[in-house]
Amino acid sequence: MPSRRRHSYTGGSSPATSSYSTTSTTLPDRSPAPSSTTTDRQAPNSLARWISGIFINCFTPPGSVSSKSFNDSEHDIRSRRSSTGSVQKHYYGNGNGNNGNETENQNQRFSFDEIYAATKNFSPSFRIGQGGFGTVYKVKLRDGSTVAVKRAKKSLHDDRQGAEFMSEIKTLAQVTHLSLVKYYGYLVHNDEKLLVVEYVPNGNLRDHLDCKDGKTLDMATRLDIATDVAHAITYLHMYTQPPIIHRDIKSSNILLTDNFRAKVADFGFARLAPDSESGATHVSTQVKGTAGYLDPEYLTTYQLTEKSDVYSFGVLLVELLTGRRPIELHREQKERITIRWAIKKFTSGDTISVLDPKLERNPSNNLALEKVLEMAFQCLAPHRGSRPSMKKCSEILWGIRKDYRELLNTSL
């Protein structure tokens, strides 16, 4: 197992970008007329009530989150009771439109002034990531804990960025999973918007595949990471209500802990999945994502389903095995699109040539390569109906990892 990595959150060049960021492709809106399953922006006059409703879900276990609208009354939020019968406050920061200043709350864990002071007026020396959404800072709070703070760009006339900020809050408030970055709260102070999330100390997956600290992720670690990510996406698709589609699964959004367990980050592009009870099969929406990871069917039809995440996961698996980025502009034409190159090698019987050259060629690694690539190419099927579910991917990966460990132990 590699030793502890450096604590960097900055990624490499396009298409993989910095961790905790939303530097991704957004195409012009050619989507169909809005329907009951299409909603990309909240009405301004309901924003405050909508934000308030988020915090019910923030403190409710995922299994009990209601599928109703987030427009719950402020009375419900203030009087919602814990299992011990005491009244819980649900605000970490502003959520009720009080003159753009922070909400006073006896249970508030952090404040804008504390974050401002801890980062020395958002000094570049505390910066750990940069993306389309804004800048990410490492912040040590007064209680000794360390968090990551996303500071939104001050784009006063950019409704899109405001929508992405609120989308991430709405999504993070619903989820609790070991392999998802934890959400702690948000603050709105005058023209500042801050999102406070878990600080994951070991950088992002793309940096480790690039060996930026000179060390290589072994195959066992790569299989663990793939399994963690598969479980996280399965949770989003199957165990949240309503289901959530991430829309931006990529290596720079996979953060690693000190013991190299993966946590999926960056929910700025996340969308709620269609309501299956209504008979809807997809969400019609503007295409968002990152070049190289985008589901081609979603790209051409503007119809988003959970299978779009499955496609992106397939690209991520190929990236894990080959060490290459999805798009390699410096390579010759036939090798620039990594998944096409890998599929061609696989179908011609030359699978071993796509293995990351930094990995040893041995029976256990060769077995993992064959099995994972086979599943990855199923995820990359052109039509979503031919792709497996994320639950199925999780089950297959679990079996591959088990077989890999057994073969590795017998060969020692």
UniProtKB/TrEMBL annotation:
EC numbers for this chain: 2.7.11.1
Ubl conjugation as UniProt keyword: no
Low complexity bias spans: 9-26
SMART domains from the UniProt entry: S_TKc
Pfam families: Pkinase
PANTHER family given in the database record: LEAF RUST 10 DISEASE-RESISTANCE LOCUS RECEPTOR-LIKE PROTEIN KINASE-LIKE 1.4, PROTEIN KINASE DOMAIN-CONTAINING PROTEIN
Stated name of the protein: non-specific serine/threonine protein kinase
Natural source organism: Raphanus sativus (Radish)
